[in-house]
What does this fold into?
Amino acid sequence: MKFREKIARFMDGRNGTDELCRFLLVLSLVLLLLSMLIKGLVGSILWALVLAALIYCYFRILSRNVYKRRSENEWYLRQKNAVSKWFRSLRDRWKQRKEYRFFRCPSCHALLRVPKGKGKILLTCRKCGRRFERKT
It folds into this structure.
């Protein structure tokens, strides 16, 4: 039996790699580089974090509890999407800064976009319906 077939048979029914595992591997690589640059107690702590991330990553790869590992990966993907959505929102606001002003609703904190140069206007929040006045 070839080595590749043995590995495939061994990994049958196991979780394997996913997005969270890839993130943990990249994180451990970055922490490893930082631990090599920083000496002393902080470097030792970073080295311990590298080992913990690698151990957890390989535990996830070899785990047979696929349902639990998938739920962990889904949680990670939700967090990642929330962060990337926030950065996309910042980028879009930056691109639109010359034509629009952005305000937050005082009660529900929803983001409202208003064209610039309209003077004082009465805004109505689409989310909660509160009315407030702002200068554009």
Observations:
- The first strand starts at residue 100 and ends at 104.
- The chain has two domains: 1-95, 97-136.
- The longest helix spans residues 66-95.
- The radius of gyration is 24 Å.
